[in-house]
Design brief:
Largest sheet: 6 strands, parallel
CATH class of the largest domain: Alpha Beta
CATH topology of the largest domain: Rossmann fold
CATH superfamily of the largest domain: Thiamin diphosphate (ThDP)-binding fold, Pyr/PP domains
Number of domains: 3
Number of helices: 26
Helix content: 25-40%
Radius of gyration: 30 Å
Distance between the termini: 82 Å
Shape: elongated
Length: 792
């Protein structure tokens, strides 16, 4: 780096640091045109200074790299509370003012820029959705490198620079994310360039990697498959030169790796470059405050000078700190960045804040989804055919891979469970991705594979999130109980999409589609640890504008739901369905109609006269409604309806199946919610309803709030009763079995049917017989195990 260029880069860095400090502290006098006074200071000081100088340092040098090489670069800020630094840099490059014209590139715009930070109606303190160029919500640590890796997949021209704080490096997801070199194929993927920023401290204590010596840290990254370079120091000139050289070297290595792979194929796993950057925490800030060291300690983490409004000494120190960046040299009289400095930023879409890769909807190409007719099961009679419900979906995904081979914009992510979840047909079209030598006995493993299997829910979901936010499509399939491992990621992604709705400049992206299979009801072979429907509860509490939850009862309904979800934009779609062999109920046209309605009466399963849709009063109301949500609860409900029909045929029973869980909510709570009229058309105005439900009963009751007499709904669901047992014993343990549902229906029916007592006794006897049978034979009773719908 030439001396003249170095001086300009250092001044640009000073401008970013100045705006960072100004955002944290100032509500007026943004360019220090007059002496600093207490009334210029915000009444509440929020924000994080300690990591910000390092974030800006990397940003400024990436700008230089982009201008020299023409590279497309996305910046992922792991230390998310360095929000003011990223906002400052996106403002300096001009993107911020283009998107938010009110924050103009002049003194008035600067005034608004500093006032909006961490104030009501302004912007949050971390790198978040309103920050142009961001694909990563920094409010929860651990996911930066995961998101960066997903962003690089299938974007061969992209470099994803990922700054990782040494506090973040202590989290489990980040530790797992170092495995990226084993999954990035240099012939088709872009590159991830990790910058591990070691400034030594978290919010109030030291970091593990910050206290390890350089050789150990470099060896750690090398053991994970990276080729790290160290940049360390506290003297700006030396650090600028070293970082510029390190980035130039990293870019040359990235292009060399990609060129060799393009010419010769992937002969061996490449060692991608990485940078370890060790600089003081709170660099260029106050060295000490009130006689206590600050720079280079944990005390620089947030607001180094806390008493600025009330302490004249602190106010004077803040003014000295701000003036140390020489703002009068950086900005002209109108408040614009000096032309010589502004010229250091890239232009147009090459600016990291303006990159279309960081606004993935701009790049999104719709999936070419095959027609469902080729995969649908023939269902001439409901409840007779038994098939593995997810297997047809696997065949659809196989052909989706084939249809997207040229566009390369779809991937399946799964924690080593693709075959287990009956989605293995995809391996007829592609393999598992692993950048490692093949061994005899491997099946469907190659560097060119596009099924991403790794035994980490964090990696699978995080990769998919990065993949989606940079303009592609995908599906995350996992065991239901273990989806809770990454539940907080789903929460953060939902929050991201909720805020996107207020930002028209962010183009819609493909939805986050999560398939939960190997469900609680059919993990009898694995036991209690594998039995847990908790992610439904988690997602129910989040924004109705974003969250969708589907529980298809059979394979054809699953195909329809999956097709809808893969075409959707800006949602989190939760699809809950078991992988095991289940009875099939609906042909494809019926499945389409059922999914579109969200919930339907199944007249073939009940014993009431058909209700005319236009005249709900054309028949007597049912004595009891049996409602079911989920595949196993559906089977138990139908079995209960068949028992009632056989023993008390004069009891009027209605069967309602729900596939779209959110259709039960009020319309003002969720856009899929039914009107009161439609709700009562299904469940009557005040009749008794017995519900067999896949999840926890409390979650279902939450949906009924605001409906007429919600206490008339008697919900049976998973009640944390489980073990290694038989399939039917799982529903017995949780009192959702057909016999429990019959007993509940008899209790709740509007009139006591003749023969009801005898039927109740029969149900209790069958439960006792079941208890004895499974302990003697280790399998369910034949009449339960082999049950099918007995009526034509």
């Amino acid at each position: 780096m030439e001396d003249n260029e170095l001086g300009l880069v250092d001044e640009y860095w000073a401008a970013a640091n100045y705006l960072t400090v100004a955002q944290i502290y100032l509500q007026d006098n943004a360019l220090l045109r007059e002496p600093l006074r207490p009334e210029h200071i915000k009444p509440r000081l929020l924000g994080h200074w300690g990591t910000s100088p390092g974030l800006s340092l990397v940003y400024v040098h990436l700008n230089r790299l982009i201008r020299r090489t023409g590279a497309d670069v996305v910046y992922v800020a792991g230390p998310g509370h360095g929000g003011p630094a990223l906002v400052a840099n996106v403002y300096l490059e001009g993107t911020y003012s283009e998107i938010y014209p009110r924050i103009s590139r002049d003194e008035q715009g600067l005034h608004r820029l500093v006032r909006q930070f961490s104030t009501p109606g302004g912007v949050p303190s971390h790198v978040s959705v309103p920050t142009p160029g961001s694909i990563h919500e920094g409010g929860e640590l651990g996911y930066a490198l995961v998101h960066a890796t997903g962003a690089a997949m299938d974007h061969p021209d992209l470099v994803v620079a990922c700054v990782i704080g040494d506090g973040e490096a202590e989290t489990g997801p980040l530790e797992a994310a170092w495995k990226a070199p084993f999954f990035l194929n240099p012939t088709r993927d872009g590159a991830v360039l990790p910058v591990l920023h070691l400034n030594g401290y978290k919010i109030s204590g030291p970091t593990v990697l910050g206290r390890r010596d350089d050789e150990e840290v470099l060896a750690l990254l090398a053991a994970h498959g990276w080729a790290p370079t160290l940049v360390a120091g506290s003297e700006p000139t030396a650090v600028h030169r070293e970082l510029a050289d390190a980035l130039d070297h990293a870019h040359r290595e990235i292009r060399r790796i990609q060129t060799e792979a393009g010419e010769h194929g992937v002969r061996q796993r490449p060692r991608w470059p990485a940078i370890v950057l060790r600089t003081p925490k709170g660099w260029t800030g106050p060295r000490a405050v009130d006689g206590v060291p600050v720079e280079g300690t944990f005390r620089a983490h947030q607001v180094p000078l806390g008493g600025v409004r009330d302490n004249p000494e602190h106010l004077a120190m803040l003014e000295e700190w701000l003036r140390s960046y020489h703002p009068h040299r950086l900005f002209d009289q109108t408040g614009r960045l000096r032309p010589a400095l502004a010229a250091l930023a890239p232009e147009g879409d090459k600016r990291m804040g303006a990159s279309p890769y960081a606004n993935g909807g701009r790049l999104l190409v719709a999936l070419d989804i095959p027609a469902l007719d080729a995969y649908a099961l023939p269902v001439p009679t409901p409840g007779r055919l038994r098939r593995e419900t997810t297997r047809p979906l696997g065949e659809l995904l196989r052909d989706l891979y084939r249809h997207t081979d040229s566009t390369a914009n779809f991937r399946l992510f799964c924690p080593d469970e693709t075959n287990s979840n009956r989605l293995g047909a995809v391996f007829e079209a592609t393999d598992r991705c692993l950048i490692a030598p093949a061994r005899e006995g491997d099946e469907h493993v190659s560097p060119d594979g596009r099924v991403m299997e790794v035994l980490s829910e964090h990696l699978c979901q995080g990769w998919l999130e990065g993949y989606l936010l940079t303009g592609r499509h995908g599906l995350f399939a996992t065991y239901e109980a273990f989806a809770m491992v990454s539940a907080s990621m789903a929460i953060q992604h939902t929050k991201w999409l909720e805020h996107v709705r207020d930002l028209p400049w962010r183009a819609p992206v493909s939805s986050l589609n999560v398939l939960l299979t190997s469900t609680c009801w059919r993990n009898d072979h694995n036991g209690f640890s594998h039995q847990g429907p908790g992610l439904i509860d988690t997602m129910l509490s989040l924004s109705g504008t974003v969250v969708r939850i589907y529980l298809p009862p059979d394979a054809n309904t699953l195909l329809v739901v999956a097709d809808h979800c893969l075409r959707s934009r800006d949602y989190v779609n939760l699809i809950v369905v078991d992988k095991q062999s289940h009875l099939q109920y609906l042909d494809l046209p019926s499945a389409r109609a059922h999914a579109e309605a969200g919930a339907s009466i199944w007249p073939w399963a009940g014993t009431e006269r058909p209700v005319e849709p236009t005249d709900p009063g054309s028949t007597d109301p049912p004595d009891v409604v049996l409602a079911c949500v989920g595949d196993v609860p559906t089977q138990e409900t139908l079995a209960a309806a068949a028992i009632l029909r056989a023993h008390v045929p004069y009891l009027r029973v209605r069967v309602v199946n729900v596939v779209d869980l959110m259709s039960l909510a009020l319309p003002e709570v969720h856009p899929h919610g039914m009107t009161h009229e439609n709700f009562e058309r299904l469940f009557t105005h005040d009749g008794q309803v017995v519900v067999a439900w896949h999840g926890y009963a409390r979650a279902f009751h939450q949906l009924l709030h605001g409906r007429n007499e919600p206490s008339r709904f008697h919900v049976r669901g998973f009640s944390e009763q489980g073990t290694t047992t038989t399939p039917f014993d799982m529903v017995v343990l949780n009192e959702v079995s057909r016999y429990h549902l019959v007993l509940e229906a008899l209790r709740r029916a509007g009139r006591v049917p003749e023969g009801g007592n005898r039927l109740a006794d029969h149900c209790r006897q069958m439960l006792a017989r079941h208890h004895a049978h499974i302990r003697e034979h280790f399998e369910d009773m034949p009449e339960v195990r082999d049950w099918v719908w007995p009526y034509a």
